Amino acid sequence: MQKGDVGVKMYFYIQDTTGTLVDLTDASSVSLLIRKPNNQVISRQLTITNPSRGEVYYLTDGQDFDVVGTYQLQIKIVFSNSVFYTKVFPEKVDDSLE
Question: pLDDT at position 42, please?
């Protein structure tokens, strides 16, 4: 990922702790939590593309990855009676040459 990238489609396949894909059919919301290198946390709504296979995506805007460094990402899934969080995973953002 490059600093300020716009329109990058980030695909995710949500799995539980055993590696089984999570069925999102009954999810009321699925969001991407992004912790920037300065520790600011933002939340972005994900688009569900294949609910039974846990497939979602996010289309970046210019404010999401606006600082060079390592970001921490986590997905939050809300069901009517529970909330599920994925493991935290890193995303490195580099500066462009221009």
Answer: 97
Q: Are 90 and 73 in contact (CB under 8 A)?
A: yes
pTM exceeding the 0.85 threshold for the entire prediction:
yes
- C-beta separation of 2 from 93 below 8 A: yes
Which amino acid makes up residue 70?
A: T
Residues near 48 by beta carbon (within 8 Å), at least 6 away in sequence: 24, 27, 30, 55, 56
What 3 state SS string does the chain have? CECCCCCCEEEEECECCCCCECCCCCCCEEEEEEECCCCCEEEEECEEEEHHHCEEEEECCCCCCCCCEEEEEEEEEEECCEEEECCCEEEEEECCCC
Alpha-carbon distance 64 to 44, whole Å? 9
